[in-house]
Amino acid sequence: MRPAILSLSFILLTFCAWSQKKSAKTVPVVKKPLTHAVYDQWREIPYKAITTDGNVVALAINPQDGDGKVVFFDLKANTQDSVKRAAEIGLTFDSRYAVFRIKPPINTVKDLRRQKKKKEDLPKDSLGIYAFGTKKLEKIAEIRSYKIAEKAGGWVAYQLEAKKEAKPKADDKTKSKPDSVKKEVKPKKIKKNTDDNGYTLVLRKLSDGKETSFGYVKDYAIAKYGQGVLFASTGNDSTLKAGVYWYDLQQEKLQPLYAGKAKQKMKGLAINEDGTQVSFIVDADTTKALKRYPKLYHWKKGDASAIVLADENKTGMPPSWIVSEHYVPSFSKDGSKLFVGINPQPVVQDTMLLQEEIVNVEVWNWQDGLIYPQQNKQLDNEKKRSYQSVIHLADGKLVTLGSKEMPTVDQADEGNAAVALGRSDMAYRRNTTWDISGYEDVFLLNVADGSKKDVVKKLKGNPFISPKAGYVYWFSLPDTAWFSYAVKDSKTYKLAQEVKIRFADEEDDHPDFPSSYGVAGWLANDRSMLVYDRYDIWSLDPENKRAPVNLTKIGREQKLVFRYVKLDPEERFIDPEKEMLLQVFDETTKVSGFYKLSLKDNKLTKLVMSEHRYASVIKAKNAERLIYTRENFTEYPDVWTTDPNFSAPKKISQANPQMKNYLWGSVEMVSWTSLDNIPLQGLLYKPEGFDPKKKYPMIVYFYEKNTDNLYNHIVPAPIRSYINYSYYTSNGYLVFVPDIVYKIGYPGESAHNCILPGVTSLIAKGFVDEKHIGVQGHSWGGYQTAYLVTRTNMFAAAEAGAPVSNMTSAYGGIRWESGFSRMFQYEKSQSRIGGTLWETPIRYIENSPIFFADKIQTPLLMMHNDGDGAVPWYQGIEFYMALRRLDKPVWMLNYNNQGHGLTQRQDRTDFAIRMSQFFDHYLKGAPAPEWMKKGIPAVEKGINKGYSTSASETLMLGQK
């Protein structure tokens, strides 16, 4: 009987195991709502690249807060490898190595900072060198920086951190000196590695690891094609004197170019395209004199040393002008010219004055070109401003191109051309106080002698010069048309006059001239300019000799938007012998994808179209291999690879596999008609498992138009300024994002007339809890939120971020981040009032929420920070004080020293928590947290967050 019992037991055990295995397969994953605690673990892909040969893809995959990694995907072997904490990744041009920094563990650094360790005692970055062939990693400790050649492999140059000084041991200090020692001999002072002295530079040959080191290097540059390394050293007084050096990487030989002194400033290192010439700037004065006289040096291969090419005495230099130490010289691509910056000798302070004798006063003159706040914001740039000049290297002739009257010069044909483009807005700067698009005069400059000729005066539109410098071209905003100016005969042409469609934004609803849709590029030898209309790509002859040609043809008919994808970052013109890759967006369905266009026969071929958003297309330099991202609301933008025909797409990354564990949601387009009888669309985000028979709380968010973002993925993350759709749908909310169209002069009413019927159309469907609808917006959306709650009681709660509450006081204010007057905002830009305060005062009052604050019955949360450089925070204060005086429920969050949107992660997380608590209370009936009930006294700021509620502590928030 015993064997039978064993056999039965075995059968039972086998059945149980099989049953459990089957059960494990069929039991679905129990999904949970997103919490604020998940943000840190959510990963992003901030860097992606493919090797020149197309065999390896490198991706940085980092958590939002924590240690990330670089992952190498070997496409041929179908394998992957990774290195932890990699950053600033570079791939060598020969496709053999990846070079990168390796950061110390974040938690280790934080722990040491909590221990109040000094910056110099914190762990430093290492250099990582990963060989794709052997899959081996080599680490070099404590590096400051590294550089690799843009178009060559073989070498890496890096600088080391300063070595830590060994502290003397305690017993060494207490040792008694021998009686025979009468006088202490002071040790020789050792030169330290500092920012002033420089740091050790190491040149490493990657094939065998051979290294060559140079001490006290202040600056260094590696030639584009790896011919050599140019560096400046303050010298070590023994083996390496202070000066500038060239290290030939092919011959592995050092050549001194300039012998200087340790305290001289040697900077502005530049190397020409083929590595046969270099230039640099030296300020040889080692005193603290305020007036400086830098000199420009030049060296070419074969010369014994560098020579002075320009200084304050150079022929052609304007009187009292000097070489700029703030402009890095650059060679023309053919090496025939060297472009350099020069500037007037700056006005300096009288050093004999005492502090109490200096008067610091701003004189605001009504005739100033730029108002004083703009001048203050641009002060550092103005102190460093230089004006472009060119030195012809064949004869050393210096030609001044730029000037105070014409500060902007654009090189042509990579500096090779005989002409350059000059631009000046000096005569019109005062107008930019109220008309930010401004005007400028455009000139053609003769590089040989500096002479100029007029191209167009008082242009409103940006001018450019064609790749081979045959034409100057621009889009004139008042004419809503493209123009070209032929350099060879000085004739101007208005292009495509016979074409009936517009090349300007057809949907622009601002009280200003609409912008163009842009330029795809030029064909070789400046034969044709390819420009966009709303949908298609057009070929325009810059001299109107050939009729305009619609290359894509079907765009307008099918409402497909075609845009050129530039696969080669160095491409200067579009090769008509190659097929063009076009990104395509269906304006009706919002799907997107790619087509290809052959310019030989104008054949248009569809490659892929799907319910996704595609982006970040990168091509391997020497292989037919692409990488790109693909996303939609439920699909993270992971990286895919394919051939140029998209025939075999393959996903190679999976950054956030944990998504499957969380409730997410879906999104769809909805339609309705505004109160002004305008057909509108919007996006409706629904919770996962949506049941149309249930009623859901809903939050309305808006900012102009958003329906084109139907297939955007929304990563769970702390919020900068507006609600995270994924978080709210995961937690049982509907999120409605309506499009808005505007009537000039009535921005608030336009928002009201578009949004409210959209909300009521959803209420009519039966699944919206009409008593629990919230509204949220920031900046322009914050203003409209504040306006809406003065006009309707539809919303149970509202959050308005950085709202303009009083247009009459905001009109004359300053955008402190840029220094601009706010006038343009109201007259011609986003606020769309369409006139000055004294021309249309009633519009400013009617559109200002503060004048109707007594009508508000909706509890309002605001976030407006004292460092806001776009909307002055006194706008939030005015509204808060009005509602407080009226005894309305209002809260204002001021994150000290933060700007228009939150940037610090801890503040963004805090705002996300508070906003969700606010809406949960009013839209879901959750208990109010302490900060809403009692506030947080100033003495507890930064100590007590006030998140807790009567129901629970931070567990409800999903906090760690």
Automatic annotation (TrEMBL):
<feature type="domain" description="Peptidase S9 prolyl oligopeptidase catalytic">
    <location>
        <begin position="758"/>
        <end position="925"/>
    </location>
</feature>
<protein>
    <submittedName>
        <fullName>Prolyl oligopeptidase family serine peptidase</fullName>
    </submittedName>
</protein>
<dbReference type="InterPro" id="IPR050278">
    <property type="entry name" value="Serine_Prot_S9B/DPPIV"/>
</dbReference>
<dbReference type="GO" id="GO:0006508">
    <property type="term" value="P:proteolysis"/>
</dbReference>
<dbReference type="GO" id="GO:0008239">
    <property type="term" value="F:dipeptidyl-peptidase activity"/>
</dbReference>
<keyword id="KW-0732">Signal</keyword>
<feature type="signal peptide">
    <location>
        <begin position="1"/>
        <end position="19"/>
    </location>
</feature>
<dbReference type="InterPro" id="IPR001375">
    <property type="entry name" value="Peptidase_S9_cat"/>
</dbReference>
<feature type="compositionally biased region" description="Basic and acidic residues">
    <location>
        <begin position="167"/>
        <end position="184"/>
    </location>
</feature>
<dbReference type="InterPro" id="IPR029058">
    <property type="entry name" value="AB_hydrolase_fold"/>
</dbReference>
<dbReference type="Pfam" id="PF00326">
    <property type="entry name" value="Peptidase_S9"/>
</dbReference>
<dbReference type="GO" id="GO:0008236">
    <property type="term" value="F:serine-type peptidase activity"/>
</dbReference>
<feature type="region of interest" description="Disordered">
    <location>
        <begin position="167"/>
        <end position="189"/>
    </location>
</feature>
